[in-house]
Amino acid sequence: MSRDYGVNAGVLAVDKARYRTLLDGSGRDADLVDVKNAMLPARNKSRLEKASTRFAFSSRPRHEADARGKRVTCPSRRVTNHPVSLNNMATRSRANPGGNQNVLKILGPDVLPLRSRKPPWFKVPAPGSARYRQLKNLIDSENLHTVCQEAACPNIGECWQRGTATFMILGDTCTRRCGFCNVKTGKPTWNDPLEPARVARSVAKMGLRHAVITSVDRDDLPDLGAGAFVGVIRQIRRQAPNCKVEVLTPDFRGEEMPLAKVVAERPDVFNHNVEVVPRLYPLARRGSTFERSCRVLRNAKEMAGDEITTKSGLMVGLGESFDEMVDTLGQLRENHVQVLTVGQYLRPTENHLPIVRYWHPDEFKQLETAAYALGFEHVAAGPLVRSSYHADEHVPQAEPGVGPLAEVAR
Question: Around 229, how many Cα atoms within 13 Å sit in the side-chain half-sphere?
């Protein structure tokens, strides 16, 4: 009796006579992956070779008898998923991750395993203070999202204890799939017109003097999410007029009109992270380009002039060299970036890009010195530095504030 097997809806047929020779002594099916070359015509081999890195079939028979002798279907005949190796992994090992990239070919073979021990300078206290719990309850009660939580930031305990947070608008689902980011990806459904008012209300309750607003990429929206940024800026100006506003925006696919809408509201700081050196963009930031990100920063500065401060951030640990980093910083200065942050990449899960090495704090200090020599006005570089880490210190503050942050600042 011939049986049909296949990859993607059973399209590869097995010849009856040849199949009989592929049974083991007990009459059970032989492993399909091991015998695929004998079973399939040459034109089908390449298709199965590609799929066999992700799928395998059980060697149990399709049917068994239960205790009463009744014929039942064996559930183990279903296809089972197996982890994809780094050699074939794209930016994320999910369905349709955005293309096949040989990670080890680009990053090199000497990458660190996920569970490798981190250097001692990464040890930070676990979050859980009274102020942390108070702030978490406030954010949860307003049904808001923060990048601190979604991106698993290591500084969440320190920043929330300090009374500051980075609000993430437009939901928690991103339309892109960067290989380093821990924010979940998929088809977003969140689009709440009242979200700007709720964010501003939380900013006012917290008594912040510097609020950071960021968002997931929303390539599914007609304005790419620019309208939400406009709404939040206006609401914060109304409900917390003494609070400075920093926006950390996506690239808006390089379109100038959404960018112009945001810049027209004159946020105090316009931030767009380039994330990695140009060489790593095809691997780490599929769907974007380094040139496009630089153009966004340059256009923002040209539109607003001295009324806004431009800012960008990078991370290290993916095999970039010191000279590559300095060259990238030089390109950012050529595009009128004034404030810079540089931190160490930390791999969130096994489905993300592996770490090549941990940079030593002394190397971050050297990079900071080089950045100031290039003309940056403010530089924050360190293993645990993130784009919005102590963001209130990156620009001069005219107001002391009235909330818990002000108590720290005095």
Answer: 31
